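Customer escalation, tier 2.

The customer says the design service returned an amino acid string that "doesn't look like it belongs to this structure." They asked us to rerun it and document both sides in this ticket. The original structure tokens are below, unchanged.
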């Protein structure tokens, strides 16, 4: 797969969530690559969720997510218009899956950010917009029919735990609103800041495609913005964020589509409310639960009530 004569393990980059394996960097001896990344997926004997959400539903969701990621790299990744790790190969056994990927650090994207300046923020938003434009209308064969790790069908326990009665009642309608959008694309599904890698010149790449699948592009955008901006910044920059996104999206489409933009702009608050519903059930004290999210949720619930 790599042409290397041998390899030396350099480091364990991180443990996978809930003990499902490891991501390692290997130094290659011979071949075309100085170093590569391997993602070793091996289901634990016991679920070890850090927040106590241990269930068969969660276990099966995680297993499915790694299968989806493998299929993404094998069958879809070569069509990506934006920078992602090159796929070098995969092996599977009864209990393990091994993904071999390009090392983005060695490829010139060694920087990770805890916060973003305006240029970096726009670069990430542009990455999402170009990704969504490329895969607009794409079938989801082998991927999640509905992308994202928080969508309602896979999170019944978190919905049951949700104490916000108005949001709990509105959850199926919010989900339906996003699902029934005329324009659907492939979404990354976990487009948080931690999954973006930066080059010194400001270029950006993204990784971690476990939850890629069908959906409205606003789900990625809202989730990304919430992962890296304060509530004050979300409020102040909302229109600028949407302007940047749709300017890049329209430029990346084969021809501009005003109806798509009108539909997705209207769904931005619904995408926020959808993730907010998951978060309030999963971790009621989470730092991402703030007045901006609550305001958008109230706005969405009021709109739904007026429509009924």
């Amino acid at each position: 797969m790599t042409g290397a004569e041998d390899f030396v393990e350099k480091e364990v980059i991180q443990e996978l969530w809930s003990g499902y394996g490891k991501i390692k960097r290997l130094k290659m001896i011979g071949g075309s690559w100085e170093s590569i990344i391997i993602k070793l997926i091996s289901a634990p004997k016991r679920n070890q969720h850090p927040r106590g959400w241990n269930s068969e539903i969660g276990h099966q969701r995680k297993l499915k997510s790694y299968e989806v990621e493998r299929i993404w790299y094998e069958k879809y990744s070569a069509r990506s218009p934006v920078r992602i790790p090159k796929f070098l190969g995969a092996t599977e056994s009864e209990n393990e899956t091994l993904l071999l990927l390009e090392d983005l650090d060695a490829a010139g994207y060694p920087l990770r950010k805890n916060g973003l300046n305006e240029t970096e923020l726009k670069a990430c938003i542009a990455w999402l917009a170009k990704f969504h434009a490329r895969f607009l209308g794409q079938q989801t064969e082998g991927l999640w029919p509905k992308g994202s790790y928080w969508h309602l069908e896979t999170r019944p326990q978190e919905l049951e735990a949700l104490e916000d009665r108005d949001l709990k009642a509105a959850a199926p309608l919010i989900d339906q609103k996003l699902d029934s959008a005329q324009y659907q694309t492939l979404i990354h599904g976990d487009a948080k800041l931690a999954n973006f890698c930066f080059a010194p010149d400001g270029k950006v790449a993204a990784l971690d495609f476990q939850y890629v699948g069908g959906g409205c592009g606003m789900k990625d955008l809202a989730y990304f913005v919430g992962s890296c901006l304060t509530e004050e910044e979300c409020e102040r920059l909302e229109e600028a964020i949407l302007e940047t996104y749709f300017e890049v999206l329209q430029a990346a489409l084969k021809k501009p589509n005003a109806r798509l933009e009108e539909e997705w702009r209207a769904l931005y608050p619904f995408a926020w409310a959808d993730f907010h519903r998951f978060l309030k059930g999963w971790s009621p004290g989470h730092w991402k639960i703030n007045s901006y999210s609550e305001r958008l949720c109230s706005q969405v619930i009021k709109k739904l009530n007026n429509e009924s």
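Tier 2 assessment: The sequence is consistent with the input. The chain has two domains: 6-102, 118-307. The CA atoms of residues 26 and 235 lie 43 Å apart. Sent an explanation to the customer and offered a walkthrough call.
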